[in-house]
Specification:
seven-stranded mixed β-sheet, mainly beta, six-stranded mixed β-sheet, globular, Metallo-beta-lactamase, Chain A, 13 strands
């Protein structure tokens, strides 16, 4: 399984010929860097109905049209099961539905919190129990993401083997790393991982650089 980062909360996870796009950025959202990532995905998972993450059209490419998952429920795609739990968040003072997704790819359990803010609900805690990789939003309350304290509380609750911060800025990342007990961390271009690589890991933070 290979994981790459494309800004905001946009991640590509590839396992064999299957490509998952988590929170692809819409063409209607202009990235400060001016970058616009496009590729063909098998599945697009969208947590929140905002331009920062509802760009399924950006991963409809080169003859591939993704199966789009948007909202709570249970889904099955090619033998891979995805569960989504309902949460609420506030983006720009407007209340929004956010879906936390949990799936298992290549025998690795993944929880993607999306634009979760505040403390985790009981439903999310139950769904994401014994997770291997946790994608946690590291932002500010005002942008619909967790502040450093709440993000670290989610990590402590779920006890993942690997933590991948997302949606962070130069301002919001350092407080989270400090809460996590990490003094400094160099970003990596991608994370290539198999089940056996998780042995002995507990709460390791992996920072992915934006492609």
């Amino acid at each position: 399984m290979v994981i790459t980062y494309h800004g905001k909360q946009f991640f590509k996870i590839q396992f064999g010929d299957t490509i998952f796009a988590f929170n692809p950025i819409s063409k209607d959202y202009k990235m400060p860097s001016g970058k616009s990532t496009r590729f063909g995905a098998s599945v697009a998972l969208i947590t929140t109905g905002i331009p920062e993450c509802n760009g399924a059209e950006q991963v409809t490419y080169a003859g591939k049209e993704p199966f789009v998952i948007q909202g709570p429920g249970e889904y099955e795609i090619g033998g891979i099961f995805v569960k989504g739990a309902y949460t609420e968040t506030v983006v720009g003072k407007e209340k929004k539905v956010n879906t936390v997704y949990v799936t298992t790819i290549d025998n690795i359990k993944i929880a993607f919190l999306g634009y979760a803010s505040g403390k985790l609900s009981g439903d999310v805690k139950e769904l994401a129990d014994q997770v291997d990789i946790l994608f946690v939003p590291v932002g500010e309350d005002m942008d619909g993401q967790m502040n450093a304290h709440d993000a670290q509380a989610a990590v402590v609750t779920l006890e993942p083997k690997i933590i991948i911060p997302m949606g962070y800025t130069e301002k919001t990342l350092p407080p989270f790393l400090k809460e996590s007990g990490v003094k400094s961390l160099d970003p990596v271009e991608k994370l290539t991982i198999k089940r056996k690589d998780l042995d002995g890991k507990s709460g390791e933070v992996v920072l992915l650089s934006e492609e």
